[in-house]
């Protein structure tokens, strides 16, 4: 006779059969799902294009990545790689964009889209440039990457814009030096301030910060009592930026001490400024 207890007692064999049967079904289901996910490259690519058009840039980038991952030797893989970089950039995923663009450059350094890939690398830094109050690491990296565009792909459609953007990065870096220099000047640390303003004149002489840097040098040298360098800085400022408000201020400082602008051809400032701006060789 079969007792009620035996009816309730689980049958180990039956449980194993059910368990393995369930796993087998699940395995078949997962395998079918995986097969369904591996669509033709053209279909995945078209869907990624659609997402990009709709503004779903990150999803589009992930779709392009799938094309490259699943069909690395297909004719679409190379295009998918550069579009992935572009889509990640447009989606604000700068690290992912930079990695995708750099991967493209590693594989296709001489391809027609290589200049665009390098330009994307530069933009991922350029778009993160902060104001001069903060660290300028991204500004430095942007300048370097933009220089790569200009030097490696000078005839590309991106070189001209890279030049303009690089000039802006230089102005930002000069602005940072000016901020620090003004801080030292305001506290009477003239030597430290001169080092910062001198760096602007020597390294960033074509930026909009240069006229003020020259005026601040006048202030610093007068503060130290080195009047000949102050006169020289004012003369360089007046010669190169005669209509500048900074020259008006420098001239007033000098005349207030019964001095005037006076060029010293042997001064570091005169020689360096001519060399950088006019290309004189010494």
TrEMBL record:
It is found in: Cell outer membrane. The keyword Membrane applies. GO terms for biological process: Gram-negative-bacterium-type cell outer membrane assembly; protein insertion into membrane. Keywords: Cell outer membrane, Membrane, Signal. GO terms for cellular component: cell outer membrane. The keyword Signal applies. Pfam families: YfiO (PF13525). Belongs to the BamD family. HAMAP family: OM_assembly_BamD. This is Outer membrane protein assembly factor BamD.
């Amino acid at each position: 006779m079969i007792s009620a207890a035996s009816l309730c007692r689980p049958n180990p064999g039956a449980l194993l059969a059910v368990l393995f049967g369930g796993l087998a079904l699940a395995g078949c289901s997962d395998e079918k799902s995986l097969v369904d996910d591996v669509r033709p490259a053209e279909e995945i690519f078209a869907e990624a294009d659609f997402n990009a058009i709709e503004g779903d840039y990150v999803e589009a980038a992930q779709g392009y990545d799938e094309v490259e991952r699943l069909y690395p030797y297909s004719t679409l893989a190379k295009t998918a790689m550069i579009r992935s970089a572009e889509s990640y950039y447009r989606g604000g995923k700068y690290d992912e964009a930079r990695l995708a663009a750099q991967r493209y450059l590693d594989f296709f350094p001489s391809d027609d889209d290589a200049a665009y890939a390098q330009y994307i690398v530069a933009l991922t830094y350029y778009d993160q440039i902060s104001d001069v109050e903060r660290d300028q690491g991204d500004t430095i990296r942007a300048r370097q990457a933009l220089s790569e565009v200009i030097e490696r792909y000078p005839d590309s459609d991106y070189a001209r814009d890279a030049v303009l953007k690089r000039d802006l990065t230089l102005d930002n870096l000069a602005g940072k030096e000016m901020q620090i220099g003004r801080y030292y000047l305001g506290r009477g640390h003239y030597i430290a301030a001169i080092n910062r303003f001198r760096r602007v004149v020597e390294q960033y002489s074509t930026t909009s910060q240069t006229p003020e840097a020259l005026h601040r040098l006048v202030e610093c040298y007068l503060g130290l009592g080195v009047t000949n360098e102050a006169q020289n800085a004012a003369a360089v400022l007046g010669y190169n930026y005669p209509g500048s408000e900074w020259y008006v201020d420098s001239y007033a400082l000098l005349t207030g001490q019964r001095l005037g602008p006076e060029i010293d051809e042997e001064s570091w400032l005169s020689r360096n400024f001519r060399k950088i701006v006019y290309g004189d060789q010494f």
